[in-house]
Amino acid sequence: MIDLARIRGLLSERQSGYTLPQPFYVDPDLFAFDMKAIFETSWLMVGFDIELPSVGSYISINVGRSPIIILRDRDGRIRGFFNSCRHRGAQICKPGVGTARRLVCPYHQWTYDLDGKLVFAKDMQESFDPTQHSLRPIHVEVVAGSIYICLADNPPPFEEFKTALAPLLAPHDIANSKIAYEATLVEKANWKLVMENARECYHCSACHPELAVTFPVESTAYFEDEDDSLGKFQARMKAFDLPVGPVGGAWWQAMRFPLKGDCVSVTANGSSAVTKPMCAIADGNVGSLRWALEPHSFAHAVGDYLFMFSAMPTAPEETVVTAKWLVHKDAVEGVDYTIENLTAVWNATNLEDRALAENNQLGVNSIGYVPGPYNEVPEELVLRFTDWYCSKADAYLEKYLKT
């Protein structure tokens, strides 16, 4: 059982503007708390509707210890359910992707339709009522082709995020895209260390030489710099009626920003990786649209492809990072793009970040670790992330310590 009073005491020790006390990065009870208070109550980005191309297509993932399934039903609607049979709780679909006419539990063959209703339960007693044993639904939202889920009974308000992101993301035409590549990394680091690293570029110029070719690593968290390239970029985008933001809320941010110099994509040399653009406006020279969700994800949409990053905790000192690259559905591998060129920069960046996060974990594990101060400018979004985490944790503690 999680000792919430202890966690409240640890949370009160955190000094404003500083990293968290050590237990938040290493302690099994804090990990269990994070899954309940953070991941089971937040909106999570899980992928794209083009990953569910037909009736019965599904994505099966785990959120902490909870198997989840997201699918397309017979009406074309995207739904989500706890992937746990209502008989004795067995996982119905293994993690991964697939297609099924109905969902059949491998244990005793209880069978569910794509709307979650139980349609077959072998030889149950006459008093059994199948209408009381449908799969438990989860909340699902789709924004301009991107999919989000929340496991909470009462999720955080979503409409503001949806309304703000949709016009920014729509020009990238996810409906006419496909997954070109997907990669998974297991990082031996607490998920908060992984995400603190992902929320700043204080380290980028020294640690990410590939990314630094095209990405404005020396700019502020909101991509401002001394030569006003952001202002010039925004004026150019306005001429094409392309929204740029920034927009944001308590748990999300989004904006379009310029890449370095004449770069049009995040590639090894700044040129397009794909000859068929996802966003053809301004000949695909549209900078990068970045949107990010607390607690676990960010994505970048450039003219020719879209990149998604998701960090899902699996243990106190282990996080699974999933990366996806989308390209235009008509782009042909080996003709219009190569996987090596498409993925080179972000693959290198993810591997470098894994080494950084794992090294960070080794130092945080030390009896000599004490929380340190964030740099208020380049680490602005890290501070925002940690403050959000503390606020979210405190709200959960306030609710459950009162009951």
Short overview:
By secondary structure, the chain is of the alpha+beta class.
Q: Spans of 5+ residues with little confidence (pLDDT < 50)?
A: none
What proportion of the residues form beta strands (DSSP E)? 15-25%
Quantity of strands, as a count = 17
The radius of gyration is 22 Å
* Average pLDDT score: 96
Indicate the percent of residues in helices.
25-40%
Which of globular, elongated, flat, extended, rod-shaped describes the shape?
globular
Q: What letter string, H or E per element, gives the SSE order?
A: HHHEEEEEEEEEEHEHHHEEEEEEHH
Beginning-to-end CA distance, first to last residue: 15 Å
Strands across the major sheet, in which order?
A: 1-10-9-4-3-2-5
Main sheet makeup:
7 strands, antiparallel
Structural class: alpha+beta
Please work out how many helical segments DSSP would assign: 9
What would you say this structure looks like, in words?
The chain has 403 residues and is an alpha+beta fold. 27% of the residues lie in helices and 25% in strands. The strands form three sheets. A seven-stranded antiparallel sheet has the order 1-10-9-4-3-2-5. A seven-stranded antiparallel sheet has the order 11-17-16-15-14-13-12, with helices on both faces. A three-stranded antiparallel sheet has the order 6-7-8, with no helix packed on it. Helix 5 (191-198) packs antiparallel against helix 9 (380-402). It starts with a helix and ends with a helix. The model has no long low-confidence stretch (mean pLDDT 96).
Layout of helices and strands:
Elements: H1 4-13, H2 23-26, H3 28-39, E1 44-48, E2 57-63, E3 66-72, E4 78-82, E5 96-99, E6 103-104, E7 111-112, E8 118-120, E9 137-143, E10 146-150, H4 159-169, E11 177-187, H5 191-198, H6 204-207, H7 229-239, E12 247-249, E13 252-257, E14 288-293, E15 297-301, E16 306-315, E17 318-328, H8 339-364, H9 380-402
Antiparallel strand pairs: 1-10, 2-3, 2-5, 3-4, 4-9, 6-7, 7-8, 9-10, 11-17, 12-13, 13-14, 14-15, 15-16, 16-17
Helix pairs in contact: 1-9, 5-8, 5-9
